[in-house]
Every structure is written in structure tokens, then in C-alpha cells.
């Protein structure tokens, strides 16, 4: 069974005809060609597929596309504006907050959501918020540093 | 002379692509008409395949092809030893082995079709337990492994894949010299590399009949060679296109599903994408070998090691196909002597077939196993000898001119300095801040890698210089490192140099990524190519009558004449240099006496380093490798029951999270004597191996419990504490 859905993705209305069992992640990646969000674990624990659904963080790999019908979705592709990186993105680049980059789309979306919620988070708040975003390359130290720098709008 | 660009903390130039989602990994590659391939896997550890009925799957609307072994040539694949079928032909040898494959336009339809394939199996006796696999009556995994291409000759039992032996001096005489002899056995667990990008591949047969491959594979040229063998095609019919790789840690060098993707593409006439689900990664990736390792060491009364015998068994699972070394073994097996001078040494290491998941390479293959055993053993002996564990190490550390187990001699050895710096930074001798708190030390060393790489540098008409390189960037920032060395040599700004990842059509060969070699082989090739281009530029400048003229002016002049300035270099490091890189680490832990829970209060990691080309990337390697070591020490495990991995999800196999990282002190002892470009040493594999023994030693110091098998869980400590209480 398929259904026609309409999602506002990164500010633009997008339509797709999807099987009702299709995940939001597959819909974004394969129906809407937004391959920035990644599938890692596929079961909602690694965070590589993190997107914002009406400003709330969700794992798009365990969210059905039809649930997003009529809602707003923000993906990693929607963070930069006018060729300017979001401060979180800029900080991940400047401070080595990524290596291979496969978890990075989810990391920066989660970190943006954190800074939208808590302006100047403590290290403990950063760790608590980012718990659901695994990274195997960095050992996380530079992710913490990147988010702290983004909060303070610091450049090296 | 100080460097301009080498040594600067320059940010990754691929950063914008990675943080905006623009980077195209293999799973992101799409082509017109692309369809999906999915594999059906065996539910049994050892069975004969009686019959496979694919008729229902074929009839499912949307299914384009269903293939079994009967539909493809009877070819065995592997990296060095060719013992693995592309699809199981008559027998399955582990849970997760592929038996059939489906192509469909939708991935969901392909998965639905798998459930409609009916396979009739006849159970065979399975050998699961590593320690029983070499018994005379153990079931045999392969009837005649010696007949496989690439099989090593020595085979004391049909379940032995390979044997490695390292010998120094005379151990009989050495043990006669000893006042005390200690023997301890250790076990390590099955563990996945944990890259978050599961294996992915796209195969398309283009209009010219060439096989175009995109793959999460770190050795594109070797992949081309292996694909040619697997598909029975000439190598020039295959082109591997480079993509960024979503983490490797040793695990991304095999064919995985690529031959199947090819067969599906061939049958359907469509490009085929196959992406493993993470459950498939955990069930049938190529994880780190579990091991059982016994150390026997003879020591004199003044704490000098005079003899050691090591016997290691590595559980290699059902196939040897994932091992890339000619020895079909793990390099870490040679690390039985650790960082110590042991005049009389015998290491015997066995890679053993069982009906488990086939294991492969993981960051410093075999070494975390050996170093956990060896460095735990050191502390256990120190305790018996009444010596401080650091002092016992000091008396036995390698020095200039000493030999490693593999007979390699060392120069410019900095083991003592590295240990001393770690002890100082960690306040080793200071009183501990409270009860149930302990400190542990552990060490290792790591050579810069060997291998071969082609580099080409080309002057563009606009004055930019392009570096062509056949090495993919697995995430380490290797391409930035290479840009830095080229910019340094040519006197250009970093952004006047660009890197182009060369497909396998460009160069004849390349050993790819692995074994702490990329900065060395890629960096040396790029440096030498850039030096050649520099000479050409000087000659052009002289011709133009403008010595010292800008590169841009020369580029324009050359372009006007329709010429291209280009220089190539092939760098081939065949043997290890005499200089190695030492690591010393100290863990300070607290053990909860009620629950056995370990918390790492502080971690100190000290590295003997050469020239650091990029401090951000260098530190990133240390931190990432260290937290992988922490996971291996405390939490990561793929437990198996009767050959079935019981944690087929990334939540259950417990990779460290951002909440698990301890406060960290890094000490870098810089001394530019490395064999690498600009006198660099390796760093990618130096921080992982000692973490587990440092923590195990700290736990023993904190609560008297000696953990002999990884991971060091709260349960193990809790029960040991409880047993201790009952005894007293």
C-alpha cells in the first residue's frame, strides 16, 4: 500500500508517494534525494540518521515517512544558509569534531537542537544531550570541544 | 628550518562537505535504473544444503533476479587465502553465511523476497569452542584446507589456518637461568570494529562492458585484483571509483557483497547497490579475533626477564578469506615480547578454523589481544616479585640495538623516556586519593607501516597544483596531510594544492590504506613527486628568465605553449625501519565495592612521536584509538551461543558513548627522527592496545581482583569480590 505524503523539508514543501512501511530516512534519502542523513545501526541507537521533526530530534531510521506527513523536517542539508555554515557546522570543521563524517550529519543536527534549547550548555549538559549520537573515530573529545566553541561562537 | 605548513593545525578541507551532508559515501551513490541487492544468510553454524527453492521469491512482483551458487561460477574468494565461496554451494560453515541473493527495484521488496526462499538444510556437527577445535576428534570445518590457493604449508591439524613462530635465543637455556617462572592464561572477546558505515557497494556494467565499482573499501587496487579473480575477468575490465569511507579501523578491505552485486548487475542489466544492515555487519562482518593466550616467563631474582614462551590461539571462524597478510595470520602475534628485551623467546601462534563468524583485521590486528595478555602478565609477575610494576618494566625495556621477536633490530629507542613521562604526568608515585582507587600502567610500540603508493602532481593552467593519489581517505584526514606535504615542498599555500582521489584507471598499483602506512607511503610518494615538480618549475623559471618567478606565471607560460608540467613518483617501503614509536599509558580507576562497576577517573597517554604533520588529525588518531581501546577494555563484546551472536544490534554491543570518556592527559614526546615524510612516525595504531591492560592493572591495584578475560565488566569484578569475601 502506498500513500501520498507532503513534508516541509528544510523549508520547502516536498511530495512523495511512499509505501506505508517506508522509513522517513529512506524517504529522505531515496525519494527526495537528500542523502545527507545516514543509516548506521538502523535501530535508532547510533544517531547518524538524526533529523528534526517539528524541531524535535528523532531517529529517522525508526520513524515512518507517513508520520511526517504534514509536518516540518530539518535535515543536515538545511542547517547552512546562504553558503554560510551554521556555527555548529563551522565549529565541527575548525576543531576536528569529525573524522570520517558518517555520524557527522546526525551530530550537527543534534548539537544544533541542543544550542536551540540551551544557549550555553555545560559540559555535562552537552554529554547528556549527545548521548544518542555515536562516533567511532574521534573518541568524542573534539565533539565536546566543537559544541562548546559553537556555543561561544569561537573560531580558532 | 621551521616548516610553514607541515605542523600547522589546519582544519580539514573536506570539512564543509562532511558537515553539510554533501559528501557522497558509497551508499549515497545513485545511478539511473539502480536496483537493490539483498542476501539470504544461513541460520545454522554447520550444515549441508539439501535443496534451495527460489520459485516463490522469483514470483514476487518487483523481484528482478534470485541467484544461488548454481547460477555462478564455482570460484572461491579471499584476500590471501582463497577459501570462501561467493554463495555457499553445498555446505554452510557459519551463521550468517550467504546462500542466496535477490535483486529488486525496492529494498523492501528484496527483503520480502528473502523470506520466500526455502532452503532445506541437514545439520552437521559444528565446532564452536576454540580450545576444542584442535582436538583429534574435533569436527573439521574444511575437508582439505591445504588445497586452497594461498594456504600456508604448515598444518598440524585440519582446523589450523596458519601457524606463526618467532624465536630468539634458546628458551630451554633461558628458563634454566630463571629463579622464578610464572605462567598465566588470558582470553579476549569477539569485537566488531564499530565503524558506523556498514559495508556498501555499487556495481554497474557500463556501455563499454566495463565493470564500474564504488565501494566502502580502503584498498581499491587490491579490490580490483580480487574482483578480477572472483569474476574471472581481466583486471582492465574493472574500475574502482574512490568514495569517502565511513570509518575503517582495519575492517574495510574485503570483497564482501561486491561479487554478488556484479552477478546481479550482469543478470538484470541494471546497476546494483548492496548495503549491509548493521545486524549483518555484526553477524557476518569481519570482526576482531577472540583469543586464548598463555604466557610463561622466567625471571631472575633481581627482576630480569630471561626467557618467555607464548602460545596464542586465535579464533578465526569459518574462513581465512578476510586476512590480508601473506602469512594468513595477524601481525600482532609477534608482540608477545611487548616492549621488553627478552633474550630467549618462543612465540607460537595459531589461527584456528571454527564454525563461527570469520574474523579479519581490526585496528592493530592481534595486538590488543597480545598486549592485554602480556601487560597483565607483567603486573602479575611484579606483584609476586614484590616490585613496583613500573620499576619491573624499567628493568626490562628495549634499548638501542635490541631485537624484536621478528628479528628486527631497533635504533633510537625511547621506551624509557616514554614510560618516565607517563609516570610523571599521571603522578604515579603520589598517594592514591582514597580506598578502592588504583593505578595501572601498560605499554606498546608500533612501527610505521610498509607498502607502496603512486603519486602524481600536476601544475594546472591557473597555477593550482593537483595531487593525484590512489589512496582513499578512510576518515583520518590523510588527504589533508598529503596536501600539506605537497604545499610545503612547493612553497605554495595549502589552498593552492588540491587532491584528486584517483580511480584505479590512473595508476598501476597502490597498497591502499592500513597498518599505519598512509602518511608514510602516500606522504613519501607525494613529497618526492612534489620535489620533482619543484625542479621542473625552477627549470621553467630559468627558461623564462625569471628565476624565483611565481608558480602562477610559470603555469600561464606553460599553458600558453600547450604543455603540462607533471611529475610522478612511486614509493615502495618494503621493510620496517629501525625506528619504532612507543606508547605508555596510565589508568586511574575507582571500583565500586558494592557493584563492581569500574569508573576511569583519569587516563594518561604518552607517545613517542616524530614530526607531527597535522596536530588536529594527530590528536584525533590518539583520542579515537584510545576510546576504541576503552570500549574493548570495559564493554564491547559480541557474545555467542552455539555460534549465534546474541547481540545483533548496535545498542546491545555497547560502543562507548560521549558519556563514557574519561578525563584525558596526552603527553607527546616529540623527537623528529621518524622514518616518514618530514621525519614523521605513525600514530594511528599506537593508542589502542595498552588501554585494556592499563585498566585491568588499575582494577587489580584498586581492589585486588585480577581480570583475566576481556571485557572487564562489573559482573566479573562483583563475583570475584564476593568470592573473596566468602573465602575470608
Question: Can you walk me through this structure?
Answer:
The complex is a heterodimer of chains A (about 160) and B (about 725). The model of chain A has no long low-confidence stretch (mean pLDDT about 95). The longest helix of chain A is centred in the last third of the chain and has 14 residues, at about 105-115. Chain A starts with a strand and ends in a 5-residue tail after the last helix. Chain A has about 160 residues and is an alpha+beta fold. Chain A contains five helices and five strands. Chain B is of the alpha+beta class. Chain B folds into four domains: about 25-125 and about 195-285, Alpha-Beta Complex (Aldehyde Oxidoreductase, domain 3); about 125-190 and about 285-400, Aldehyde oxidase/xanthine dehydrogenase, molybdopterin binding domain (Aldehyde Oxidoreductase, domain 4); about 415-445 and about 580-728, Aldehyde oxidase/xanthine dehydrogenase, molybdopterin binding domain (Aldehyde Oxidoreductase, domain 4, 2-Layer Sandwich); about 450-575, Aldehyde oxidase/xanthine dehydrogenase, molybdopterin binding domain (Aldehyde Oxidoreductase, domain 4, 2-Layer Sandwich). In chain B, strand 25 and strand 26 form a beta hairpin. The model of chain B has no long low-confidence stretch (mean pLDDT about 95). The interface between A and B is large, with 61 and 61 residues.
